[in-house]
Amino acid sequence: MVLKKIVKWARVRSPWILHLNTGGCNGCDIEVLAVLIPKWDVERFGVLLQGSPRHADVIVFTGPITNQTRDRMKRIYEQTPDPKFVVAVGACALSGGVFEEGYNVLGGADKAMPVSAYIPGCPPKPEAILDGIVKLVTALEQSE
Ligand code: SF4
Q: Does domain 15-142 have CATH number 3.60.120.10?
């Protein structure tokens, strides 16, 4: 019980994120990276960018799910330890966006994994991404 509380405290104070892109136009990736620079400084909320799903609490996902990427994305999701959260950033990650009609496009991130938060826009502004991440952290804090 105490250990559980400590783990939750650590996760809320410093959620580690994995930035995953399945190949949108990269506009959203630029905005996600902008959130990490000193101007928006997401690190002040303890957020730390990780390179491995095994070390991440939150997957920040951009781009549409395609026939090619679905199984890989599922595998990365499964490699992320529980409890894990997925934030879909941008219209492509929400529904496929401008690629929706593509012959190999299945839709948004929820075609491969459960999504905890959606941040709309094409691309969303860094302020919107920051707001989404802070809201997710607040929800984590209030959860059991
Ligand atoms: S939502 Fe818009 S900006 Fe983001 S990857 Fe898709 S097309 Fe590019």
A: no
* Residue ranges of domains in the chain: 15-142
**Residue 114, Cβ neighbours under 10 Å: how many?**
10
For residue 96 and ligand 1, the question of a CB distance below 6 A is answered with no
Residue of 19, 99, 122, 129 to test ligand 1 pocket, by largest number of atoms within 8 Å of CB: 122
Which of 21, 25, 95 to mutate to test ligand 1, by most ligand atoms within 8 A of the CB atom?
25
DSSP character at residue 125: P
Minimum CA distance residue for ligand 1 atom 7: 25
State residue 34's pLDDT score.
93
**Residue 43, number of CB atoms within 10 A of its CB:** 14
Say yes or no: CB of residue 97 within 6 Å of ligand 1: yes
pLDDT of residue 144: 61
Within the chain, which residues score under 70 in pLDDT? 143-144
Among 133, 100, 142, which residue's Cα sits nearest to residue 15? 133
